[in-house]
Structure formats: C-alpha cells, structure tokens
Specification:
264 residues; 7 helices
Length: 264
C-alpha cells in the first residue's frame, strides 16, 4: 500500500541519494503498483527537500521526447520535472562530478525557451508557446538518474525529477520568430569526435509542441509557467555518456553553440 508516509519517505530517499552521490534500486521494482500520480507526488517531496536546502525553482523541463531517447531508455512517453538554480552551470565551464554529485551522467543537446509571459495550461498551443517566448537558446542538459543503472520506467524518472542533473545555456539569445525551430540541426562532439546530431523536429514534431505538452501537463496539476522561467524542450539526439576528462561542444544552426568540460 503506497500511502502518504511512503511517498514522503521515497522523496526523502531520492534527496538523500542526490546528496550522497549514490543510486537506488528502481522504485517500480520495489513497488509494482506505483502510479504516475504517486510518482509526481514523490517528486514534489524531492523538490520540497531541495527548496528547504536553499534551492530556488527557475524553470521546468520535459524529457524523453524523441523516439531515439525513448528507445534508448525504454520509456515511451515524456517525463517532466523542475529546474533549480543549483542545477545551472555556466556555458564553457568545467563541471566537477563530485561537487554536483553526478553518478551516471549523460549529455544531451536541446533548445531552451526563456519566457516573456506566463503560460497557464491546459489549453496551451504551440502558437501560444511561440508568442510567450522571449528567447530560444542552445542548451546542454546533463541528465543523471538516481535510479541504479538507468533501469527506469516512466514512474521512476518522474519521481526522480525527470532525471535532471545540471544544465548550461549557451550565450546566444535568438528571437524564436526569426527561425524555423523544427528544421534547426544540432551537431555535438565529444573530445573532438562526432557524438550525435538531430533536428528540432525530433521533439514531438516541433519544440513548441513539446513545451505546450509540458505546459498543459503541469497545468492540470495546478502548476503554471512563469515569466522569466527557463523551459527545456527535450533532447534532439541520443544521450551520450559522460566521464571525468570529457569535453563536449555543440552547435544548433541559427541558434548558436555551447560547451562543457568535466572533472573529477
């Protein structure tokens, strides 16, 4: 029986795993009747613990949006989570694996939206997203699962705040109405070698569609998008494993570039 006490305890387990840089057995392996709604409530407890530790919500994210990532993770619907200020790292910086408590990180390139106006779902359309967006930005998200060996079902990754580790926004700021976001192309390198590519259309046909889905999904839960928030729209190419010493760079046509290096 999954009751409120267990939901709180599982959120605390995930927070403790984050703090200690460790991983847990899959929640769905331990609790076969875990529902998506319960997983979301676990994620809220996880977020509550982060906020109590001094972190501040600065945006939201959608993940597992492209077919390539869904097949890689064997999760066949998008997940969603919250971004906090502690997850943000500067473009071009060296990211310490130990400092950020990264356990099994993977890199993905995507488009971030910076909002000029609130969005309140349900009922948000891709056109609404475009109208409410001030800038689009190339973004590295370093996903990291607190679930052992990435053995995740959708309930596991939702409970684990959509497997978010850290993210870095590129320096460019592009008006989204001046570029066709479905046709932009990502190219990524790892230590100078090609490490993946993909089009904007990889995420639900258009990045604005992905953001609209997220606005409507969270809107049904009573959570709006706020002016100034950062919204991550999902990976354009398969995830790439990260280890200390790795150097990643990416470019998205018409939007610009970003880079990160990783240390112990």
């Amino acid at each position: 029986m999954i009751d409120d006490n267990l939901i709180q305890a599982l959120g605390d387990e995930l927070f403790d795993a984050l703090q200690s840089g460790t991983s847990l057995a899959p929640l769905t392996e331990r609790y076969h009747d875990l529902t998506l709604d319960q997983a979301y409530r676990i994620s809220l407890r996880f977020l509550q613990r982060r906020e109590a530790a001094g972190q501040r919500v600065i945006g939201k994210k959608i993940g597992v949006t492209s077919k390539a990532v869904q097949e890689m993770l064997n999760v066949h619907q998008p997940d969603f989570g919250f971004l906090t200020d502690a997850m943000s790292v500067p473009d071009g910086s060296a990211v310490s694996m130990a400092e950020h408590r990264l356990v099994q990180p993977r890199a993905e390139g995507e488009i971030a939206f910076i909002l000029a106006a609130d969005l309140n779902g349900p009922g948000v359309t891709a056109s609404d997203v475009l109208a409410a967006t001030e800038w689009v930005v190339p973004c590295f998200e370093i996903v990291d699962s607190r679930i052992r060996d990435w053995q995740i079902a959708i309930e596991d990754t939702v409970a684990d705040n959509a497997s978010c580790g850290v993210f870095a926004l590129g320096s460019g700021r592009i008006n989204p109405r001046t570029v066709d976001l479905a046709s932009v192309e990502l190219t990524m390198t790892k230590n100078g070698a090609p490490a993946g590519s993909g089009l904007g259309s990889a995420v639900q046909g258009h990045p604005c569609e992905a953001v609209a889905w997220l606005a409507n999904t969270l809107g049904k839960l009573g959570i709006p998008f706020r002016k100034g928030e950062i919204i991550l729209s999902g990976a354009l190419a398969p995830l790439v494993p990260v280890a200390a010493g790795d150097r990643f760079a990416m470019n998205i046509t018409g939007l610009g570039s970003a880079s990160l290096t990783f240390t112990d």
